[in-house]
Amino acid sequence: MSFYSGAPFFGTLILLLLFALILGCMERSLRWYNLIVSGVMVVCVLGGNLTALAYFAGYFLIEWMLVRGYEYIRKKYGRKAAFYRSFVLLSILPLALCKLCDLPWLKEMNLFQFTGISYLTFRVVQIIIELYDGTIEEVKILDFSAFLIFFPTFSCGPIDRSRRFLEDYHNVPGRREYLERFGIGLQKLVLGATYKFVFADFFYQIMNQFMNRTAGNMVCYAYSYGFYMFFDFAGYSLMAVGTGYMLGICVPDNFKKPFISRDMKEFWARWHISLSEWFRDFVFSRFMMLSMHKKWFKSRLNGAAAGFLINMLVMGVWHGLTVHYILYGLYHGILLAVTEIYQKKSKFYKKYKKKTWYALASWGITLNLVMFGFLIFSGHFITI
């Protein structure tokens, strides 16, 4: 996550935000400014690697043609599931090829290897799904470009929604409203930088003291890695959100005190919120609707358990095709399925869930389960 690092970047960022502040105080639209700045910043980030820049340009053209093609077919033929699924799969294909190149025997292919492809794919797939649902009917090239390449969220999110983004993008706030956004954004940017460059670095140094694979070191590594991951990613997200606010876009927050969670469902409602909500809305919920329509399961509870397993397994594969990412997704899918069944079926849970001692015990168990999950995710636990 080096998108927000280095003196040259921060110097450039300060200048860009000062110009945005001037335009905002003058109550001028930031649309063209955001689009041009985002384009320049993306070229700067990818420009050191001409191959990556070429792949990004090709990816952009492919995805734009797919969106326009599906928009045309949707208007002409209506809500046909076969067309919709085909276009979703085609929009995911570049990302799939990119992930396949992570496998040792396919590294030489090096297809679509550029920063941000995973998060860009979320945005494109969401647009196609919403065209299918009818929640949006038309996609304009400038709106598509602005949404896709908005530079604060380009490489690692948070994952915004097109309709929410475009509402801010086309809105011209008054001076007072913009200054309030700018102030909030500045606070988030400073807090995020503190998280990332102070606390994340602190836990990274601790983590490196426990590299030996003894039982005690594994426990210490799991916790230090978990806190490092939080402060690094939450810090990056806060900086992205803060920069977005200062550019007039209220990017959604990505973390909400995840380590106070008392069960795994609550954890995923607090951790990487934009990702978990995307999967909830576009994978889990759609699987549930399809399974109920097809009557695949005897009960809704069984369907939900299967949905959690599939949802998190897909999330694990999205992170990468290596064993530890797949096991991480499967691990969290099992935990969420077990949590759902336990909370729906257990008389013990229903009797004591509001008790203080039960809340404390649930928090302790959840925290340990989460940290073990981070140990799996790190690849330090499983080395194959």
From TrEMBL:
Keyword Hydrolase: no
Membrane-topology annotation of the record: Multi-pass membrane protein
Pathway: Cell wall biogenesis; lipoteichoic acid biosynthesis
Sequence intervals crossing the membrane: 6-25, 32-62, 82-98, 189-207, 227-251, 325-342, 363-382
Keywords (A to Z) from UniProt: Acyltransferase, Cell membrane, Membrane, Transferase, Transmembrane, Transmembrane helix
Domain of life: Bacteria
EC annotation from Swiss-Prot or TrEMBL: 2.3.1.-
PANTHER family per record: ACYLTRANSFERASE (PTHR13285), TEICHOIC ACID D-ALANYLTRANSFERASE (PTHR13285:SF23)
Purpose: O-acyltransferase that catalyzes D-alanylation of both teichoic acid and lipoteichoic acid (LTA). D-alanylation of LTA plays an important role in modulating the properties of the cell wall in Gram-positive bacteria, influencing the net charge of the cell wall. Catalyzes D-alanylation from DltC carrier protein.
Membership in a protein family: Belongs to the membrane-bound acyltransferase family.
Protein name as annotated: Teichoic acid D-alanyltransferase
Source species: Roseburia amylophila
Gene this chain is encoded by: dltB
